[in-house]
Design a protein that fits this description.
It is built from nine helices and ten strands. The chain is an alpha/beta fold and 307 residues long. It has two domains: 131 residues, Nucleotidyltransferase, domain 5 (2-Layer Sandwich), CATH 3.30.420; 150 residues, Nucleotidyltransferase, domain 5 (2-Layer Sandwich), CATH 3.30.420. The two termini are 22 Å apart. Bound molecules: adenosine-5'-diphosphate (ADP) and zinc ion (ZN).
Length: 307
């Protein structure tokens, strides 16, 4: 059996569920190269989806079992264990899902340590254990896709406080001349509303991505917003590295070098970044960052239970 870093040998594997907006991925594993089973189900209504997930966990539990459970969900979610709504989904626009009880339904049935966090905090923990953040304790994982999600790790653990970080919704001064109407229903100038996939689609106004070259002006406000967000991260919790992925970044390889350059311009020499360049890198776990994020959360739950 594979051992996790700083971890006693595992008698049984870890179970993890990544709940996404369109699909949920259930993983039974101890590490990226020790995935024993992985199942994908569509995300529909909460009753139907959570029942299907519970059935998979019960099946695993009836076979070799699992020693801890990690639940990594699309947000926003209530991650405060002292709150009556702990483990529930908060104000999501996804029909039927506000107030869905993820932890109660999925973890309540099993007598093992469990952890619950956002999908991006899980992915950040997985990248720190097995990917681009290996060896670091201060790190951020950013995905620029349907939204802008940021998993923010400070001193080895995801940030807490009012809730999980919502760095994708920080406000950014607009690039001069950019009068685009934000796609975020809450904020007129947040990063997600200016630079996520739906914002890109609206900025393109019907033009096909295939016709948009790297030197097209449409990328300028997107680079500016994402570099502005990285500037805020550097100046606040100061991650030692940022991993940035998601459909927009992976689909447009010219963006990451430009965001790195714009970040250096924006910092203007005020703070020195770590000497290993580039500072913002692609995640290493690719499409497995989310599913393995749930496994990383399970590993954390197990470790916390042993302390
Ligand atoms: P999600 O955020 O839902 O998990 P992804 O990370 O795959 O999903 O991101 C989906 C978003 O990425 C969509 O808004 C899509 O338009 C955008 N996208 C997909 N391919 C490209 C591409 N080649 N260039 C720019 N954006 C892309
Ligand atoms: Zn917003």
């Amino acid at each position: 059996m594979y051992n996790l870093p700083d971890h006693p040998p595992l008698a049984r594997p870890l179970a993890g569920i990544e709940l996404g907006g369109t699909k949920c991925i259930c993983t039974l594993a101890t590490a990226p190269d020790a995935v024993l089973d992985q199942r994908i189900i569509p995300t529909t209504q909460p009753d139907e989806t959570l029942s299907a997930l519970l059935a998979i966990l019960r099946e695993w539990n009836g076979q070799q079992g699992f020693s801890a459970l990690g639940l990594a969900s699309f947000g926003p979610v209530d991650i405060n264990p002292a709150s009556p709504g702990y483990g529930h989904v908060l104000a999501t626009p996804k029909p039927g899902w506000p107030d869905a009880d993820i932890v109660g339904t999925l973890a309540g049935a099993f007598d093992v340590p469990a952890a619950f966090d956002t999908d991006v905090n899980g992915a950040a923990m997985a990248e720190m254990l097995w990917g681009s953040g290996r060896g670091l304790r201060d790190f951020a994982y950013v995905t620029v896709g349907t939204g802008v999600g940021v998993g923010l790790i400070v001193h080895g653990a995801p940030t807490r406080g009012i809730g999980h970080s919502e760095v994708g919704h920080i406000r950014i001064p607009r690039l001069s001349g950019d009068d685009f109407i934000s796609t975020c229903p809450y904020h007129a100038d947040c990063v997600e509303g200016l630079a996520a996939g739906p914002a890109l689609a609206a900025r393109l106004g019907g033009r096909s991505l295939a016709d948009v070259r790297p030197d097209d002006p449409v990328w300028m406000p997107i680079v500016d917003a994402l570099a502005g967000m990285a500037h805020a991260l550097v100046c606040s919790t100061g991650p030692l590295r940022i991993a940035m992925g998601g459909g927009v970044i992976v689909g447009q390889p010219h963006l990451l070098p430009r965001i790195n350059a714009a970040l250096l311009d924006s910092l203007n020499g005020y703070m020195a970044l770590p000497t290993v360049a580039p500072y913002i890198v692609l995640p290493e776990l690719g499409g497995q960052a989310g599913p393995l994020g749930a496994i990383a959360l399970a590993a954390t739950a197990l470790k916390d239970a042993l302390v």
